[in-house]
Design a protein that fits this description.
binds S-adenosylmethionine, about 290 residues, 10 helices, two-stranded antiparallel sheet, 8-stranded mixed β-sheet
C-alpha cells in the first residue's frame, strides 16, 4: 500500500470529484431527515499544499490553484470553492486543501453523521485527530470494502457512500469495487453509492460501465472529465464518477459546473466532459460499446 493522497490533493481529479460530492451532499439535505455519510477510502481529511509531498508533484497547481481566481463560475463551483476557503480560514493563498471527509463534515448538519474508513494507520490517525472534537464523525482504521458490509444500511436509512480507492492496480480495483458494490446494494438497495475512477485507457473503464448497466440498479449516472485522449495507460487522461441511485435531477445540478471544468482545467480544444445515464429509470440501459 504505497499510495498517499498528499501527492495528489487538489489536482484536477480532486476538483471534479469534490464538486460532485458537494452536489450530492446538497441533494441529501433536500430532506429534513438525517442522513449518514460513509467513506470506504477516506484519506487523512485535509492536506497542506506546502508539504514536501504536495510540492514534489505540484499537481494542485493545475487543479485547485487554477480556480481560486477564476470569475464567472457556476453556483456549484462557487459552493465548492467556499468550502476550500472555509478550510483555509481566510488565508487567500489556499495553503490547505479539504479532502472529502472535511467537505462532508463542513456541509453536514448537526443531526447527520459520518462513518469514515481508512486502512493506512498514519492517515487514519490524522483523520481521527482532525475530527476528535466532532461527535457526529466516527473513524475506522480498517479495510473500507470489508467495513461497508457492516455499515450499510445505516440506522438513518438515508445516506451516501463514497468509494474512492487508490487504483494501484486498475483492473483488479474495478473487480473489487464490483464485488463490494454488489453485496452493499443487496443489503441496501436504496443507498446512494458514488464511485470515483481514473481514466487512462477507455477499454479499462467499459467493463465496469457494462457491469453497472446490468447490476439491477435503477438509476446510474456517469460524469467524466477528459483532459486528454483516453488512449495512454501511462498518464491520468481523465477522471470519472458513477453515481448509483443518483438523486433526482443530479444531472441538472452537475451540468453547468462540469461543462466549465474543461475550460478551466484543460487545454483549449483538447479537454471535454461527459454526463450520461448508464441506467435511467423506465428506459433500457445505455449500451456501452467496446
Ligand atoms: N477520499 C479522499 C479524498 O477525496 O479526500 C482521498 C482518498 S485516497 C484516493 C485513497 C485512500 O485509501 C488512501 O488514503 C489509502 O491509504 C486508502 N486505502 C487504500 N486501500 C484501502 C482499503 N482497502 N480500505 C480503506 N482505505 C484504503
Amino acid at each position: 500500500m504505497n499510495y498517499r493522497h498528499a501527492y495528489h490533493a487538489g489536482n484536477f481529479a480532486d476538483v471534479m470529484k469534490h464538486m460532485v460530492l458537494v452536489a450530492l451532499l446538497d441533494a441529501m439535505k433536500q430532506k429534513a431527515t438525517p442522513f449518514c455519510y460513509i467513506e470506504t477510502h477516506a484519506g487523512s481529511g485535509r492536506y497542506d499544499l506546502r508539504s514536501v509531498h504536495a510540492r514534489k508533484t505540484a499537481e494542485a497547481d493545475d487543479g485547485v490553484a487554477r480556480l481560486k481566481t477564476a470569475t464567472g463560475l457556476p453556483p456549484l463551483l462557487w459552493k465548492w470553492l467556499d468550502v476550500v476557503r472555509a478550510c483555509n480560514e481566510g488565508d487567500e493563498a489556499f495553503r490547505y486543501y479539504p479532502g472529502s471527509p472535511w467537505i462532508a463534515a463542513h456541509l453536514m448538519r448537526p443531526t447527520d453523521s459520518a462513518q469514515l474508513c481508512e486502512l493506512h494507520t498514519e492517515e487514519a490517525g490524522k483523520l481521527r485527530q482532525l475530527f476528535h472534537h466532532d461527535a457526529r464523525i466516527h473513524v475506522h482504521n480498517r479495510d473500507g470494502y470489508e467495513a461497508m458490509k457492516a455499515l450499510v444500511p445505516p440506522k438513518e436509512k438515508r445516506g451516501l457512500v463514497l468509494i474512492d480507492p487508490p487504483f494501484e492496480q486498475q483492473d483488479a480495483e474495478f473487480r473489487t469495487i464490483e464485488k463490494a458494490l454488489k453485496a452493499a446494494m443487496e443489503r441496501w438497495p436504496t443507498g446512494i453509492f458514488a464511485v470515483w475512477y481514473p481514466i487512462k485507457v477507455r477499454s479499462h473503464v467499459q467493463p465496469f460501465h457494462r457491469w453497472l448497466a446490468k447490476s439491477g440498479a435503477k438509476r446510474v449516472l456517469a460524469a467524466e472529465l477528459l483532459l486528454h485522449k483516453d488512449d495512454s495507460p501511462l498518464r491520468l487522461n481523465g477522471t470519472g464518477m458513477v453515481i448509483v441511485n443518483a438523486p433526482w435531477k443530479l444531472d441538472d445540478a452537475l451540468r453547468d459546473g462540469l461543462k466549465m471544468l474543461p475550460k478551466l482545467l484543460g487545454e483549449p480544444g483538447e479537454a471535454e466532459y461527459r454526463l450520461t445515464w448508464l441506467v435511467e429509470e423506465g428506459k433500457d440501459p445505455t449500451p456501452v460499446h467496446v
